[in-house]
Design goal:
Layout lengths: L1 H14 L7 E6 L2 E5 L3 E6 L4 E6 L5 E5 L7 E2 L13 E8 L2 E11 L3 E7 L6 E8 L3 E4 L9 E4 L2 E6 L4 E6 L5 E2 L2 E4 L2 E10 L2 H7 L4 H8 L10 H18 L2 H15 L1 H27 L3 H15 L5 H22 L1 H4 L16 H22 L3 H17 L5 H24 L7 H4 L7
Helix pairs in contact: 1-10, 4-5, 4-8, 5-12, 6-7, 6-8, 6-12, 10-11, 10-12
């Protein structure tokens, strides 16, 4: 089994390719589409932003133009609906495919507008404007005007339904409603993405606190679990800064959290062991007393004598489940960062999923689950049920990004080690592989 695992890791490592965060361009009948790693931007023939789709997890339509796609307006508010030819500048590596940053430029005569797409995880676009006389520029909204906020030289629009933030830093230009007056040369910093505070911290560190405080005033921008969630987010981010690698950060994060939760898991396992030791007596009571009322009385008496609470194991499990879902959300929070921050061992990109990317994790998880099931099983029937369920559960999530699957795998391996330690300590024996296959009777 060990040799098979090593060989499989080497084979999959050779098959995995290098991560490519290229920007792709598609010409449409209505304009042009620029596709970055986690977003799609559509521009009309006038060079206005028409639609935005976020694609990190699924293709989600988050913006549709209503004269607010960086439209160029005269000072009296008249739109310059001038058809302009798009020009592209960047390092082209294939047909309509670019490595690094990409510039999409439009020339309107007296006004020039360029969108500079930064090939980075923060959904960052610079809108560069050159004009001979002052013009007005409309700023993108993702929700109704009630959710607009203006702070210093920032325009913010938040959509609670999709939890999407549109933010434009205007560099000291005056903002009126969702328009800004631009004279001569100016650069607008545009950030339209899932609302993630880590992006704001990286892009706007000086104004971060004010931006977050302002966004908290927008209905739907906060959740009840934020006081627990964000400390975990920043702890995970600290681990990444410490290790300089998201793979090792995920492993350390999982170890630390499992260590903190060990008392709960130990109490749950101890309760299960007590119930297991009591099982012969329970079976005897059920055979001896056919009357349900008398049987229940004797069972409760047996529980009291042995100091066992049948519900305690389930209660501890229910306490742990929300915590593990929260930890899963923390790892998932950094999905875009996984794609731009280097390789981990044989994995060039922890943001990709699928069987080819997760094959090694699948193998390790199944092996760890297999031995964990043998340790905790009393008979071959329950062992086979546990093994089949763990295999099915593993393949159910094979499409997850590798970063999330690494968390799942690490958690499974830690659970095996902890289970082995506890069962060894209380001298509880499970079944062997030979017993599982019927080659040697148990006992």
């Amino acid at each position: 089994m060990r040799k098979l695992l090593i060989i499989s890791i080497l084979i999959v490592g050779m098959c995995l390719g290098l991560a490519q965060n290229e920007i792709k361009v598609t010409y449409l009948a209505s304009g042009i589409k620029v596709q970055t790693r986690f977003a799609e931007y559509e521009f009309d023939q006038n060079g206005n932003l028409a639609n935005v789709y976020l694609t990190a997890e699924r293709r989600l339509h988050v913006f549709e133009r209503e004269n607010d796609g960086f439209d160029i307006l005269t000072e009296d508010g008249t739109s310059l609906n001038i058809v302009a030819e798009a020009q592209l500048f960047g390092e082209q590596v294939a047909t309509n495919s670019y490595r690094g940053d990409l510039t999409l430029s439009y020339d309107y005569g007296d006004v020039k507008k360029a969108y500079v797409f930064r090939n980075a995880p923060e959904y960052l676009i610079e809108v560069q404007l050159e004009t001979k006389s002052p013009v007005m520029v409309s700023l993108p909204r993702v929700w109704f005007v009630d959710n607009d906020r203006v702070i210093k030289d920032y325009f913010l629009s938040f959509a609670p339904k999709t939890r999407t933030l549109s933010l434009v830093k205007t560099n000291s230009q005056k903002i009126v409603s969702n328009t800004v007056k631009v004279g001569t040369n100016s650069t607008l910093i545009f950030h339209l993405s899932p609302y993630k505070r880590v992006f704001l911290k990286k892009l706007f560190p000086v104004d971060y606190e004010e931006l977050v405080s302002t966004l908290k005033t927008v209905p739907g921008s906060s959740a009840w679990y934020d006081p627990i969630f964000y400390p975990l987010v920043w702890f995970f981010w600290w681990l990444f800064q410490l290790t300089k690698n998201f793979g090792w950060a995920i492993i350390l994060f999982t170890i630390v959290v499992r260590f903190a939760l060990y008392p709960l898991y130990h109490a749950q396992t101890k309760s299960m062991i007590k119930m297991r030791k009591l099982q012969p007596k329970i079976e005897m009571i059920r055979k001896k007393y056919k009357d349900p009322t008398k049987q229940q009385e004797e069972l409760l008496k047996a529980y009291r004598e042995e100091g066992v609470n049948p519900a305690s194991g389930c209660l501890m499990l229910f306490v742990q489940l929300p915590i593990f879902f929260l930890l899963y959300a923390v790892i998932r929070y950094f999905q875009e960062e996984f794609a731009f921050n280097g390789r981990f061992l044989i994995w060039p990109d922890l943001s990709k999923g699928g069987f080819s990317a997760n094959a090694v994790f699948v193998l390790i998880t199944i092996v760890a689950s297999y031995y964990n099931t043998l340790i905790t099983s009393q008979d071959t029937r329950s062992a086979w049920q546990g093994i089949l369920m763990s295999v099915a559960f593993t393949f159910l999530f094979v499409g997850l990004p590798s970063g999330l699957f690494l968390y799942f795998t690490t958690n499974t391996v830690i659970q095996l080690l902890v289970t082995y330690y506890i069962y060894k300590r209380y001298k509880i024996k499970g079944i062997t592989t030979r017993e599982l296959l019927g080659l040697r009777p148990k006992g």
